[in-house]
Amino acid sequence: MQIIIDYLCHAANTLFGFYQHPFLKEWDEMLNDIIDKGLIVEVDELTIKFNYEGKEYEIWVGNRWYSYGHIYSIGGKYIKRSQEFRPRFRTMRRLRDLHMNIFEDQKACELFKIYGDKSWN
Predict the structure, then answer these.
(1) Whole-angstrom Cα distance, residue 52 to residue 34?
(2) CB pairs under 8 A, 24+ apart, for 88-93?
(3) How far apart are CA 47 and CA 55, in angstroms?
(4) CA quadruple 72, 78, 79, 85: dihedral, nearest 10
(5) Contact at 8 Å (CB) between 31 and 95?
(6) 87 and 23 Cβ atoms separated by less than 8 Å
(7) Predicted pLDDT at 37
(8) Do the Cβ atoms of 66 and 18 come closer than 8 Å?
(9) Which domain of life is it from (predicted)?
(10) SS3 sequence, 19-34?
(11) Considering the entire predicted model, what is its pTM?
(12) 45-103 pLDDT, tens digit each
């Protein structure tokens, strides 16, 4: 059911021009390569940092879906708004799945540190 809702959001964002950043094929290809080959350095609620080809890329994963999946910083230097692009929706969903899996694991680990083996779900 969630996939249907996601694609309806994508259709509405496309139809009504709600995406904050224009699509760029080259960025989509690069982001897929970063996901495939990069090393995840840090994850928080709004960004994922990857080490990719010797540089640290911080990817924005907040504001699903309308401002999602663009480069936030490279090597700690923030990107100009005019240089922010979005990937394909399929890539955004892939990034979202990765982010949620890692972020949920982090939250579970934090709860484990507090409560030990006790079930908190």
Answers:
(1) 6
(2) 88/23, 88/28, 89/6, 89/7, 89/10, 89/65, 91/28, 91/31, 91/32, 91/35, 92/64, 92/65, 92/68, 93/3, 93/6
(3) 16
(4) 10
(5) yes
(6) yes
(7) 98
(8) yes
(9) Bacteria
(10) CCCCECHHHHHHHHHH
(11) 0.82
(12) 899 999 999 999 999 999 888 889 999 999 999 999 999 999 999 999 999 999 988 87
- Tokens 């907040």, located at residue: 62
Q: What are the distances in angstroms from CA 101 to CA 34, 49, 106, 119?
A: 17, 15, 9, 19
DSSP 54: T
Q: Are 65 and 13 in contact (CB under 8 A)?
A: yes
CA atoms of 6 and 41, how far apart (whole Å): 27
CA 42 to the chain's CA centroid: 12
Residue with tokens 């924005």: 60
For residue 18, give both structure tokens.
């709600």
What's the rounded Cα separation, in Å, for the pair 18 and 12? 8
